[in-house]
Each structure stands twice: as C-alpha cells, then as structure tokens.
Specification:
single chain, 390 residues, alpha/beta, Rossmann fold, six-stranded mixed sheet, elongated, disordered N terminus
C-alpha cells in the first residue's frame, strides 16, 4: 500500500536540513554559497576591498595578522553590525575604517575616498565625516554636557553662535536638553553615552562608528541607546557600523551583519537570514547564546538514543517570514495525525521581521519516513535534528 503524505499547502522547496556539516562546522548544504562574490560598490558608503593588516614581529613575539582579506560593501544609510569574539579583529577593523590604522594591503573607501591613501592633513579633514562612539564614553570631566558636545566644533574654529546652533538641537535629539549644564559625574551611564552620541554627531558626519558602545550598560539602558541610534539613522540618514560581541545588539537594530573570526569575515548577510540559516559554527554559537535558543537541560539530558530504536525525534524548527505567524505545529499535527510535543523555544522579531525558533518532539517513525520533512517543505522553515529519545 502506498503511503500518502498530507500537505500543509505550503509551496516551495524542501526545508533546509542541517544534519550534514563540513569539518569546520559550516553547513555542507551551503557549499559554494559561502564563496563571496565581487563586492558591489554601487550605492555603498563604506567599501573595504581586500583589506589586510599585519602587525610586525616584536622581540620574541611573532607577527600578527589582525585582518585577512576583508572585503565588505556597506550601503549608504544602513545599520551594519560586525560581531566577533575577543581578539577576532573587530577593533582593528573599525580603526581601519576611521583611518587610525592603515591597511598593510587593500583599500578602505568612505563615500568613494580611499582614506588609507590620504596624507595626514587630508585624513584629518576626512575624519570630520566620521563620528565615533566609545564604550567608556571618553567625556572630559571638567566640561558640562553642552561643552563636551561642543568640543569638536571648537577645534574646528566655529563661533559661539554657530556652536549653540548645532549643539542645542543635538541635546534635544538625545533627550538631554535639561542636562546641558550637568557635568559627567552628575550623569548616569546611559546619559553619558547620549552625550557621546551627540558629540559624535556634532560635525554632521556621514558615518557613525560604534565600538562596543553598549557593553558597559545595563539591558534596559542598552535598549534605549539602541533605539536612539535607530532614530539617528532614520532621521539623519547616517550610515552606522556597530562593533559588538553581543548578538542582542545585532538583533535589535542592524539591517545586515558580518561575522568576523581570526581576522576574516566568515559569514555576512541580512540579519534575519543569518539568524535563520547560519552557515558557520561561530555564527551558530552566537545565535545559540540568545535566550530561548537552547534545548531545556531536562530534555537535553534524555537525548542519545539510536535513531533506529528511538520513539521520539527532537527537532529545532526555525520559522521566518509568513511561517513565523502561522500555526505550523498545529497544522503539522493535524495533517499527519501525529502528536507533536512543544519542548521550548522563542518567538521574536529580527530586523523588524517575525522569527521563531521552536524545539518539538515528533514520532521517530514519522521523521524517518520523510513525512514530516515533506509536510513542512517551505523556504521559510528550516529543520534541524537535535537528537533522539528512547
């Protein structure tokens, strides 16, 4: 007797399966898709073209390759996140963008200008187009909030009237109009960072660089600062590059993300796509660190049964787009007339797109037959086998 597999009426190819991995932890199914095409410069505010940075050997210490062939094109007006572990090359990358580090090889272009090829005088002028936000604020304790924001304008020689014309609206933008005469010691961490953001915007830059700007802040303050950066991006059209080791920061406001490891960009793309279909072990590790992305310990402890003798198979369902708002689990249970156990997970939004990751238990026989994979065939559903339970 032939076995009829009911359909959930979801058109599209089979879901992505992650059971086969390359030795480096990347998805074998991704294959050639991991190869980077030539970077597209049209409409890009920032272009890194095959950028290498090698710090020479010192004494007994060997030379260090901090950046290895980094190529990126960041569109004008985008919020781009770079995430990596400590020592991955994040700080060197951001210093290359603002011209503090000259590449050993390759070019860094800001709005079409190769900043690494400029002499010191031209580079100082070009840096006025680049604002910088620091992790530890870097405010002068002897200056008020207003005076800290005004400092780069004073260095440019602007008059008091011109400075007031620029600083007053910036204080309003960052929500500190009532703190203009307060000194840093009188401000909270979040308020200090708001002063830092206003100071970075004082020269009306085209690019804003954020180096771990929220790492020293509590979660609630972090969310408020990220909301402010999103507002700055939307209202002023400033291209923002965020350097971070926190995936929550990337998830909150970035349009695209690059994952850096050992000086190379190993994965890059729209945030929702990288979250839904991470191709590398590093990206999966960062995504797995978010709340709701790990199997509950009590369930994980029961895994380990051989597939052929298991009663239940545990799956991770990653749902994006329309699938994240449909009753996929209920539809699956009804279509195949099986019990589907919800074991854990999280429903969220990433890059303003709905996203869900669910752990479910299904009958091992139904999974082995291919019925479940066929029923869930859809480009916005990815399946991963976590293990089997006796």
């Amino acid at each position: 007797m032939s076995h009829h597999v009911p359909s959930l009426s979801i058109a599209g190819p089979r879901p992505v399966l992650f059971e086969s991995l390359n030795p480096d932890g990347s998805s074998a199914a991704a294959g050639a898709a991991t190869a980077r095409p030539a970077i597209a410069r049209d409409g890009a505010m920032i272009v890194l073209d095959d950028v290498w940075k090698t710090f020479p050997a010192r004494g007994k210490d060997a030379a260090v390759e901090a950046l290895k062939g980094v190529s990126l094109a960041i569109p004008r007006g985008e919020i781009y996140g770079v995430i990596g572990r400590s020592g991955a090359g994040k700080s060197t990358l951001i210093r290359a963008i603002n011209g503090l580090e000259r590449p050993s090889r390759g070019d860094v272009l800001i709005d079409g200008v190769a900043v690494n090829r400029l002499d010191e005088a031209a580079l100082r002028a070009e840096r006025r187009k680049i604002g910088m936000i620091f992790q530890h604020f870097n405010l002068l304790s002897s200056r008020t909030a207003f005076a800290n924001i005004a400092l780069p304008l004073e260095l440019l020689g602007l008059t008091r009237r011109e400075i007031d014309r620029r600083v007053t609206p910036l204080l309003e933008l960052v929500g500190l109009s009532d703190k203009r005469d307060r000194y840093p010691v009188e401000l909270s961490g979040g308020q200090k960072q708001r002063v830092g953001i206003a100071r970075a915007l004082a020269t009306e830059p085209k690019v804003l660089l954020s180096d771990e700007a929220t790492s020293a802040l509590d979660p609630e303050t972090t969310r408020s600062i990220l909301a402010l950066l999103a507002q700055v991006n939307a209202e002023l059209g400033v291209t923002i590059v965020l350097i971070t080791h926190e995936m929550t920061v990337i998830k909150e406001i970035c349009h695209r993300v690059g994952v850096i490891d050992a000086g190379s960009i190993i994965e890059e793309g729209p945030v929702d796509e990288v979250f839904a279909h991470p191709r590398t072990a590093t990206a999966r590790a960062f995504i797995g660190s978010l709340p709701g992305r790990e199997l509950p310990p009590a369930i994980a402890a029961r895994l380990g049964a051989p597939a052929e003798s298991a009663s239940q198979t545990v799956l991770r369902l990653t749902l994006t787009g329309g699938a994240a708002t449909r009753p996929v689990v209920t539809q699956l249970a009804r279509a195949l007339d099986i019990d589907v156990t919800l074991l854990g997970g999280q429903i969220d939004s990433i890059g303003n797109q709905p996203f869900a990751q669910l752990f479910v238990g299904v009958p091992a026989a139904s999974w082995a037959s291919g019925a479940i994979a066929s029923a869930l065939a859809s480009p916005d559903i990815a399946l991963e086998v976590i293990g089997h339970v006796a």
